[in-house]
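Possible race condition, two jobs.
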Amino acid sequence: MTGAPSPAALDALARLLGPKGYTDARDDMAPWLTDWRGKYHGAATAMLSPATTAEVAEAVRICAAHRIALVPQGGNSGMVGGATPDASGTQLILSTRRLNHIRAIDRDTRIAVAEAGVILENFHNAALAEGMRFPLTLGGKGSATIGGLVSTNAGGTQVLRHGTMRALVAGIEAVLPDGSIFDGLAPLKKDNRGYDLKQLLCGAEGTLGIVTAASLHLVPASAARRTAWVGLESPDDALHLLRRLDAAIGRELEGFEIIPHGCLDAVLRHIPRTRAPLAEAHPWYALIELAGDDEAALDAALQAELAAALDDRLIGDVAIAKNDRESEDFWRLRDSISEAERAEGPAIQHDVSVPVDLMPRFIADNPGRLATAFPGVRTVSFGHLGDGNIHHHVQPPADGDGAAWLARHGADLSRLVYSHVIELGGSISAEHGIGQMKRDIFAELDSPARLTALRGIKSGLDPLGLFNPGKLIA
């Protein structure tokens, strides 16, 4: 059981961290008490901002001794309320933003060691300066931090080739709930000492340990990339195109996104300085990216495969970016979808995954299921076809108060979406985590065996329930 921090405990934390690392001023804490989407709001007695792993460990030991709950927080850019304290005011935020050093970049081993508070975009730039690349990117790269990306097992647009954050983590340093430091930064290729603690911590959403640094795999900076925007009739055609490109091109195929025309239309209406890549509209689009060292070979392979797809009438039209600026323009259309959808009005966003081969089936079937139960609802699906990750947005009926309708029916609507996902062998969270938003539905719908195992791990490593209570595990 945890409780309100005592004056003695707060005084010890203030003395440990100093004025740069400790604040209980409401104005200073206010931006960090609300999640990025503005959906969850909490309160905290104080915010701790340690500058070293040793300071994190000592702060945790003080909190453990006084049974004070801690909410770890990185860039506060999560989508499921996983870094927001509850409303009790008894919890403390532990921010990792001052742990912002890149300790090493080794070109020979292709391994970098970055602290938890390093911003993803800054890490990208540091790796590029060494002729290397960290192959994970997402729309929030300017605020997302390494620790948050590890803790949520982030995905992004390059999972098709490089995997999620879990695949890119070679080692982890973390502080456990008793204040001990787990030093697992060594990038061992073989390690049979029982359970893989780094993999337990990756995706644990701060419930098992506070990640303070990570060893991360890098790849050589690609000398060239080729990006194409393809018009086609359906997600089924997109899947067939993906299979053809994967068979013909292989590892150079780095990204494959599918986008319905409705999403593109919303972007063109709401996002300034955007334009459609193709002269005519198509029901669906695929955004395809190749990356490699041989520019001529990439260009030849992409043009040959897309020309054959045109001849076979698998696709309707294609635009290939002539340079990096045009590639960025294509990706801006994809990355602006969420912003444009928000401008369209209220909606419920579902970040889900199903087996890749079943993604077109889910996109085709789920709108009908929803419309039968909730007449008038509108669905928009887009996402990473290469890894089966669907961003499935559901808008309320057009006639009426949309926000009020979602407040009344949203939970039942989402239950129908998630039940369909699990029926297909999928996951109710593809890349954003469970947090507090999906905690209860996760406990209701997912496998009892999975939930029992997760609860056992949580109680074993954090028996007092100090780390991020109320998140992930109900």
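Job #2 (started ~2 s after job #1):
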Amino acid sequence: MQLGQHLPVLQVVIPLLSAPLCLLLRNGRLAWMFTLAVSWLVLAGAVWLLLQVLAHGTVSYALGAWPAPWGIEYHVDHVSAFVLLIVSGISAVVLPFAGISVAREIPADRVSLFYTLYLLCLTGLLGIVITGDAFNLFVFLEISALSSYALISQGRDRRALTASYHYLILGTIGATFILIGVGLLYMMTGTLNMQDIAVRLPAVTDTRTVRTAFAFLIVGISLKLALFPLHLWLPNAYTYAPSVVTAFLAATATKVGVYVLLRFVFTIFGAAFAFQVMSLGPILLVLALLAIFSASTVAIFQDNLKRMLAYSSVAQIGYMVLGISFASLTGLTAGILHLFNHALMKGALFLALGAVFYQLGTVQLTQLRGLGRRMPWTMAAIVIGGLSLVGVPLTVGFISKWYLILAALESGWWPVAVLVLLGSLLAMVYVGRLVETAYFHAPPEDDREVREAPLSLLLPIWILILANLYFGIDTSLTVGVARQAAALLLGVSP
């Protein structure tokens, strides 16, 4: 019981202290096993916290026994518990894949350093989600960002260095905007505790300082979550990073960015100020639709499959932000639900491309001709993941888009519902290109023997694929938690 009381802080402390220990191991295999054990331990903690929140409500933890708002508070409600589960769950599934994938893509003398950086990135992402302090959130944001830059730079292609540097520049700009926003809020309220800011802010919302803080925070967070047109760092970062890094970041980092947007907009500023006073809804709606159509269109013309899925991720972020833009219970449920569903889809697809890269050494579309017969299990996973991306019934993608369409119709915006369906048609085009090449084209003439990926790579892929199907059929957990989280943010009954 005593250990359970400290579980919120252990979610951060365990991976943070494990990172330097991982570096001391020196041996790459031992470092991987150690990181795997840490990740599964964190997942167990996240599951326990979610069960506690569902059963008893919000869990709070005061660091150093200093009560909020004087001390830093870790705050776990339905929203943060759900995102904690996403981050820790993806990490726990990705790491078994990393065992041989990282050994192939990262030089042996840098493997232990790689896992140290991975644990620091995991620490940052978990800390962002669990903290109830605005400045503490910025600190964890930088921990995850700095380690992400280093992880991306580990890619075999030299362009990974350029991609990492580009991400560093834009990420630093975003972080600076967020820090300025938090500083302005502190100047006006005299506190950094998110709940306390929310209480004190209504008295000063008419000031230009608070509105300026709001603008800085929205722009800075939009850069971090890669909302169109502030997404320019994302395609190269995902394309040239090591396979494991791409899968992990694609399934977690932007989702945590969306979480930060939710937390500031709804918990701190409140829906009334954000959507009525500052008119955030129409802005997010337009940017979300532009993201869906522009990124999906660009994805159609990509020959590098990692880049294709990277642009697809920009489009999928558009769907999440679209749900938020409605500022309704159904819309917010759709946005939060898509956080979980997209993590399953994109995690599975990028891992499957990692398996293709492991066997072929490339993910160029032209090199995948006839691969459906040579790597049947890997390609079957890509097909199912692609169908989920399109939104075919019995997959999680269908559930997300169904709730988005419901939210649009509830708001009386039937043209937006039509646009959501048209966005799915664009996804069908680029997924169809991949399926056609893999199944209906003959293998290259100089084709060497290509075998199916090893079981240690296939197993994590298919765990996520089966989750895509299971949560596309049984939605009681995901929709239920997402709806409770949305109700909590809006301050209404579920």
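Residues 279-494 form one domain.
Logs attached separately.
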